[in-house]
Amino acid sequence: MVIAARSEYEDQVAVFQWAAINQHRWPCLKLLYGSLMGTHVLIKLLNKAKKDGMKKGKPDINLPVPIGGYCGLWIELKRLGGKHPTQEQVKNLTMLGFVGNAAYTCHGSDAAIKVLESYLAGRIRRSQAY
Question: Which of 46, 66, 118, 123 has the smallest CB count inside 10 Å?
């Protein structure tokens, strides 16, 4: 039997369910937030969100907590077997890294959760070489 891969939306929900369960271990997970860019919404709502500041190409998940020499963690989430990040997404992740953030593309919720755990445990460290 073939099991279909979860959608990006379902993967993002799984990441936030994991975060809710693990807030006792890492209280800063209460600051974790996501964007609606991977969510299909009515065009009227999308236009309203864009006017309100939502920008195309921004990563899906952010943890604005400084750890390991980084300012925060940004994750562009893709579903397993899904597409690669767009040029705009790569450009944004690169820029976020340049200004001192840990920035990753993760395929599936399991990969995103592993990055979050590593970041929170201090295993992802920023090089001091410039």
Answer: 123
112 is written with which tokens? 């995103």
Provide the terminal-to-terminal Cα distance of the chain, rounded to the nearest Å: 51
Query: DSSP for 71-120?
Result: S-EEEEEE-TT-PPPPHHHHHHHHHHHHTT-EEEEEESHHHHHHHHHHHH
- Residue 110: closest CA among 1, 4, 2, 12: 12
* Mean pLDDT value across the chain: 89
Confidence category of residue 51, pLDDT binned at 50, 70, 90: confident
Using CA atoms, how far residue 109 sits from 13, 36, 68, 112, in Å, is: 9, 16, 22, 5
Task: Give SS3 for 62.
Answer: strand
Confidence of residue 38 (pLDDT cuts 50, 70, 90): low
φ, ψ (nearest 5 deg) of residue 34 = -130, 165
Can you give the pTM of this predicted structure?
0.87
